[in-house]
Amino acid sequence: MAEKLFSEFPPISTQQWEEVINKDLKGADYEKRLVWKTMEGVSVRPYYRAEDLKKLNHPGTSPGQFPFVRGTKGDNNWLVRQGYCAWESFTKANEQAVDGLMKGVDSVSFCIDGKRGITPEKMSILLKGIDLSVTEVNFEGCSCASAEIIESFLKVASDNGANRESLRASFDFDPLRYLTTTGAYCCSDFKTTLKSCMTLVKDYPGIRVIGVEAYMFNDAGSTIVQELGFAMGAGSEYMNLLTEMGYSANEAASRIKFTFAVSSSYFMEIAKFRSARMLWANIVKEYGANDESAQKINIHAVTSQWNMTVYDPYVNLLRGTTEAMSAALAGVDSLEVLPFDYTFREPATFSNRIARNTQIILKEESYFDKVNDPAAGSYYIETLTSSVSEEAWKLFKNIEERGGYINALKDSYVQGEIKAASAKRDNNIATRREILLGTNQYPNFNEVADKDVAYDVVTRGAKWEKSDTPVVEPIEKYRGAQAFEALRFATETSGKTPKAFMLTFGNLAFCRARAQFSCNFFAVAGFDVIDNNRFATLEEGVKAAQEAGADIIVACSSDEEYATAVPQIKNLCSGNTILVVAGEPACKDDLIAAGVTNFISVKSNVLETLKKYQTLLGIK
User: Fold this and answer.
1) Average pLDDT value for the chain
2) Buried b (16+ CB within 10 A) or exposed e, 92-127
3) What is the pLDDT of residues 450-461, one digit of tens each?
4) Angle 92-97-99 from CA coordinates, rounded to 5°
5) Closest by alpha carbon to 155, among 83, 82, 204?
6) Beta strand pairing status for 36-37 and 256-262?
């Protein structure tokens, strides 16, 4: 039956597909119309076929086989991690962690002040009621820490009878991150601290003391390829440092843990994690790591802070879910979904529960943990994996050619690459080529930010501390939404509520479409938008706008009607009213000559255009 079915559908060659596509394009440029150019410089074609796999080198292995593209484990299970802040209260952080462990968490993370250290007495408070034989414990904030934290942890673990072989923990001692984000070294001799940390855990195979915190690049607006390439560079720097201290490549690699962000580019993120396993396996092998377990990268993933928004924060739930799906399908070792309110307040019980349950649903209801590397064999994702690997490898080689990661920082190579990428991303957001739902597109018209909560978050942004005596230029932390959030917050705190009135007339389809576009446009800045179905006459529309107290009148109709109608509207408007035309009509030059100078369209830089109208309305 199957043979008969397929015999009715003869194979179609790529050439035949291309001939039909070019015919349908009717002379339009194939590359411009159908090939997607990603931020990473990767060209994504409209379709891929089995023959594309023949051009790639990495397919063909099984999960657990070098170079581990398809995973480092025999299954796709990952640890559900949740983080708890211990800066103010160890007791509170412990209570939250124990509660999370009872509700599906199997990996806890404590955010601590690494500079202060932790005594065994305080550590026992933090770990009270946590079964260290089955729970992975992680400590964040140790970038500039002393070995005292590890000593205290091991003391408490020993007192509780934890088995050295089964103990699983990580400490994100990452002096390179500290250097990258603050501009200075965390201490005068971080190499001594690094050696002390390694010595303390020599009899504990499940403890990793070095954290390559690659998510810092994402926090600064990097591309996926940059995050991956620079992470490999930082990891290689640690391999150099440790092997120069006399540690074997196997021992050095087994103490390193990578933490990546997961952004919203769904398939690219899957490709990134698959690429990371392949690249790291080859790097440590070149250092002489012949132990298969040492060649396997340990990856923790955390949903992106850069993507999160203060306005319409429940959209963060959607972002976190799709990001978690990418990481889970890609086969990470552990995953943390940040609560939707993470950026602007201490997450509460509800937001922590939803973040936790996102992963539990992926496991228990969607069975993401039951299939190893479901992306394997996908013509598209396998090609993306190869492309991401190649581009990241180029960055890694550039770092190595400069003498390693530290020298690349001193040359401002890393910072320059990220600045260029973040500037491009910012422009894409400003022009809505990249959508942040609820912020630069489709805002909640009625939302008003909590001023006490939003002031620092929106106007000042999330920043890393900076050194007073930097030796390198640090990268800058921010969120993609910050500029638009500051724009809207300025309106809300100005004491004014500008009104944008949609003067709809003429062709019904055009006037309604442009009115909806314009409502979204001005609502992004927190303006009060007044929509209308369609006015019978221009006089009726202008009169209604004036009665409504409109500061801005937006002419919404077809291009053909603008030539005569817009000058009439201008003459009917009072001198203080701002007249805006929705669209880029062919008669634009004639309208400008008639004194109409304001136009909005899909080509507009939304951010700069709205700033201009705020200035005209006296909003700073």
Assistant:
1) 94
2) ebbebbbbbbeeebbbbbbbbebeebbeeebbbbbb
3) 776 666 676 666
4) 95
5) 204
6) unpaired
Segment 177-209, tens digit of pLDDT: 999 999 998 877 889 999 999 999 999 999 999
- pLDDT tens digit sequence for 19-44: 999 999 999 999 999 999 999 889 99
Query: Considering all CA atoms of the chain, what is the largest pairwise distance in Å, rounded to the nearest integer?
Result: 86
Residues, the chain: 620
For the record, the structure tokens of 404 come out as 């390693």
What's the whole-model pTM score?
A: 0.95
Q: Report the amino acid identity of residue 293.
A: S
Instruction: Indicate the DSSP class of residue 480.
Output: T
Q: Provide the pLDDT for residue 41.
A: 87
**How far, in Å, are 197, 242, 277, 562 from residue 252 at the CA level?**
12, 6, 17, 70
By the 8 A CB rule, do 517 and 569 touch? no
CA distances from 114 to 90, 140, 174, 298, 300 (A): 14, 8, 11, 22, 20
| DSSP codes joined into one string, 242-264 | HHHTT--HHHHHTTEEEEEEE-S
pLDDT digits (tens, 9 = 90+) for 203-213: 999 999 999 99
Distance of CA 490 to the CA centre of its chain: 25
Q: DSSP labels for 78-98?
A: -EEEEEEE-SS-HHHHHHHHH
Q: Using CA atoms, how far apart are residues 508 and 530, in angstroms rounded to an integer?
A: 17
Amino acid at 465: E
Bridge partners of residue 138, in order along the sequence = 109, 170
